[in-house]
Design brief:
This protein has 3 helices and 6 strands, in the order αββββαββα. It has a 6-stranded antiparallel beta sheet. The longest helix has 31 residues, at 110-140. It has helices spanning 3-13, 70-83, 110-140; strands at residues 19-21, 30-36, 41-49, 54-64, 88-91, 97-105. The protein has 141 residues and is α+β, with helices and mostly antiparallel strands.
Length: 141
């Protein structure tokens, strides 16, 4: 089964609506979902690179660091990333947008791959939710 189909199957099984969207020309269509956490709601999107057998999932915090604060925020995100075992925060240097990124090369059976996708999506959302308030405070200081 394709990575895309495995992702869609997980979302369907959990009654999570999936919507397609493109963010850049030349990038495969992303699959978007809405994640709900205790500290906020987040947009998530999956990239499924079938040839490479790579699944990448991003969770947008819907926070942007101002140009003046980007260097300071980047240092603080690096400190947070040091504590995170899977995935990590990244900040777009042009826009200041902050996301959580998790990725994994997919191997094994469809069931095993589906379990990896589920863990990655959940972990990405949990990381975003756990650190949202802290990052929001840094941005708004």
């Amino acid at each position: 089964m394709t990575i895309r189909k495995l992702f869609e199957t997980f979302m369907t099984a959990n009654q999570i609506p999936v919507y397609p969207f493109d963010t850049e020309e030349g990038i495969p269509t992303h699959l978007g979902i809405r994640l709900k956490g205790d500290n906020g709601d987040f947009d998530g999107y999956a990239l499924c690179f079938e040839e490479e057998r790579l699944f990448v999932f991003y969770t947008r915090l819907n926070l942007k660091a101002s140009l003046e604060k980007r260097e300071e925020i980047a240092v603080k995100l690096a400190q947070i990333n040091y504590m995170i075992k899977i995935g990590g925060f990244q900040m777009d240097p042009e826009s200041g947008e902050i996301t959580v990124r998790v990725a994994h090369y997919m191997t094994g059976t469809d069931v095993e791959q589906g379990a990896v996708i589920e863990r990655l999506v959940r972990i990405s959302g949990l990381i975003a939710d756990k650190y949202y308030s802290q990052i929001s405070e840094m941005i708004n200081e």
